[in-house]
Amino acid sequence: MEIWINPACSKCRSAINLLDEAGADYTVRRYLEDPPSAQELREVLDRLGLEPWDITRTQEPDAKELGLKDWPRDAAGRDRWIEALAAHPRLIQRPIITADDGTASVARTEEAVRDALARK
């Protein structure tokens, strides 16, 4: 299991606390320091069953500078979104947990973290 975090994020810290309380075996990826590649994002999106705009923090200053709200949210625009997330990792919703069973979740709630733990 791996968790992508920003240590300054309270949701990330809460998720880590829940993983620790459960005695989970996991690795931490500080995705702002070690940004995922476009290919890694494609793989995680497939595991999540989501599109890149679904995990984009659209209120971030980078999103506003890029004009993301006006970008098409369709198959033709998918790669553009992924490239933007790879180039601007602050735009990635957090935390993301990749479970050992091949699934992933955006673990912003206690329920989502517990669900990821159940999918060892």
UniProtKB/TrEMBL annotation:
<protein>
    <submittedName>
        <fullName>Arsenate reductase family protein</fullName>
    </submittedName>
</protein>
<dbReference type="InterPro" id="IPR006659">
    <property type="entry name" value="Arsenate_reductase"/>
</dbReference>
<dbReference type="Pfam" id="PF03960">
    <property type="entry name" value="ArsC"/>
</dbReference>
<comment type="similarity">
    <text>Belongs to the ArsC family.</text>
</comment>
<dbReference type="InterPro" id="IPR036249">
    <property type="entry name" value="Thioredoxin-like_sf"/>
</dbReference>
<keyword id="KW-0560">Oxidoreductase</keyword>
<dbReference type="InterPro" id="IPR006660">
    <property type="entry name" value="Arsenate_reductase-like"/>
</dbReference>
